[in-house]
Amino acid sequence: MQTKPFVVGGINRLPAGLRVKGKAAVHSIDKISAFVLRYGLVLVVFWIGCLKFTAYESKGVFNHATHSPLLAWAYHILGVRDFSRGLGVVEIATALLIAAGPLWPKLSIVGSLAGIGMFLTTLSFVMTTPGVWQAGYGFPALAASPVQFLVKDVVLLGAALWTLADSLRYVASRAR
Predict the structure, then answer these.
(1) Mean pLDDT score, 46-64
(2) Are 157 and 94 in contact (CB under 8 A)?
(3) Residue 48: CB partners within 8 Å, gap ≥ 6?
(4) Taking a C-beta distance cutoff of 8 angstroms, is the pair 121, 70 a contact?
(5) Quick one: which of 100, 103, 105, 62 has its CA closest to 80?
(6) C-alpha distances in angstroms, 103 versus 28, 96, 135, 172?
(7) DSSP strand E in the chain: where?
(8) What is the mean pLDDT of the chain?
(9) Which of 42, 168, 37, 161 is CA-nearest to residue 106?
(10) Which pLDDT tens digit goes with each residue over 101-110?
(11) Is 17 helix (H, G, I), strand (E, B) or coil?
(12) How large is the C-alpha radius of gyration of the chain?
């Protein structure tokens, strides 16, 4: 005889045997997704940091950062290439700190906070960079350049917030 799930109050209730398997599957998916989220973020931030050492990326950063009240001042001190290299060092360090989460969650907290600051800064470019909206269309038509590449930073910001929460959760559990 085949066992059918039944519905109570709009909630699908599964037989006990399937619930156990379902919980195990959810636990496995949770572990895999946490790994992919953390190390996907690490890969992206590390890669972007490495690109900061190239001439074309230095120019791209300059085109956005010179309009930012948070970053424009630095070009007067460092110049285009050195400023970009400095950002690269910060981004690579941020990625390595986030990667350290499972072993050293306190370091990951620092890296996650740096990532959050980095993504909030780049998202601020949407407000400060000229040519944000597609000419003749206005909101919500983002121009392909310079801004469409910034939209991904909303997801990366979410990933950095998650790594922060995950590391804080781990530190709190150790303190008990």
Answers:
(1) 91
(2) no
(3) 91
(4) yes
(5) 62
(6) 20, 12, 49, 15
(7) 6-8, 11-13
(8) 85
(9) 168
(10) 999 999 999 9
(11) helix
(12) 22
Handedness of CA 112, 156, 149, 54 (dihedral sign): positive
> By three-state DSSP, how is residue 13 classified?
strand
DSSP state of 139: T
Q: Which amino acid is at 86?
A: G
Cis peptide before 146 (omega within 30 of 0): yes
Q: What digits encode the pLDDT tens for the residues 20-32? A: 677 888 888 889 9
Per the CB < 8 A criterion, the answer to whether 48 and 160 are in contact is: no
- For residue 43, the model assigns a pLDDT of 98
Torsions phi, psi for 53 (to 5 deg): -90, 0
- Give the rounded percent of residues in the chain with a pLDDT score beyond 90: 51
